[in-house]
Amino acid sequence: MAKIVSGVEFESEVLNSNVPVLVDFFAEWCGPCKMIAPILDSVANELEGKAKIVKVDIDQSMALATKYKVMSVPTLVFIKNGEVVDQIVGATSKDMLASKLNALI
User: Residue 93 is part of a domain; what is its CATH number?
Assistant: First the structure.
């Protein structure tokens, strides 16, 4: 299951992670965000231990959203070794997410 992280946890959970991380920048009021939430949880469970998925609420962590240039939600940012390596804006398929994360493992 995807964990919600705040600015305080972001460095340890994402930037210092020893596995690739998919960061889902979302908002509670966002319809497409709610639509992909079960997909993200499914991929997180399938890749547990190899990659992880975390969620950042843009309304609670505006500084992170600004830092990663989030202009609309959902924005999915792929991070490996503390660096952004890919990004998807908008809802996407489970196959696409799993494929992109598997390529980083």
Answer: 3.40.30.10
What mean pLDDT comes out for the span 71-90? Answer: 97
Query: Of these residues, 30, 64, 65, 101, which one is catalytic?
Result: 30
Domain count, the chain: 1
In this prediction, residues 8-36 reach a mean pLDDT of 96
Selecting among 14, 33, 64, 101, the annotated active-site residue is 33
- Output the DSSP codes for the chain: -PEE--HHHHIIIIIT-SS-EEEEEE-TT-HHHHHHHHHHHHHHHHTTTT-EEEEEETTT-HHHHHHTT--SSSEEEEEETTEEEEEEES---HHHHHHHHHHH-
Question: Can 51 be counted among the known catalytic residues?
Answer: no
52 is catalytic: no
pLDDT interval class at 8 (50, 70, 90): confident
Is the pTM higher than 0.90? The answer reads yes
